[in-house]
Amino acid sequence: MKPLAFIIHEGSPNDAPIFTIMEQLKNKCLILKGDTFIFYKGYYSKDNYINGILGYNIIPIIFPKYYFKLNKILDSLSYPLDYFNKNTSKYKNKSFYE
User: Fold this and answer.
1) What local confidence, expressed as pLDDT, does residue 62 receive?
2) Rounded distance, CA 91 to CA 67, Å?
3) Of residues 44, 50, 45, 35, the one with CA closest to residue 3
């Protein structure tokens, strides 16, 4: 396994801009479907979770704070309305969870 990037911040920023490197990798076409990214839990922020889920299809597996509220994240996520149009291919690809 070869790391693509390693970033060290001075001090300890609370809400570091974790996805700036993701945008750079995306622009250079270095991100492939199925790639694994490992980030330190200190990068927690609600906006970073939402940006990662919607923008990069990242599945966060670390919920770093004991008072983390999953509902805050889920309430911010929604499908665009065209997903529910049965005439589009997006509707056929959408999976429904029970």
Assistant:
1) 65
2) 35
3) 35
Taking a C-beta distance cutoff of 8 angstroms, is the pair 70, 63 a contact?
A: yes
**Residue (of 44, 94, 35) closest to 70 by Cα position:** 44
C-alpha to C-alpha distance for 51 and 68, rounded to whole angstroms: 17
Q: According to the model, what pLDDT value does residue 77 have? A: 72
- The domain limits of the chain are 20-93
DSSP state of 29: T
DSSP string, 56-94: H---------TT--HHHHHHH----GGGG-TTSHHHHHP
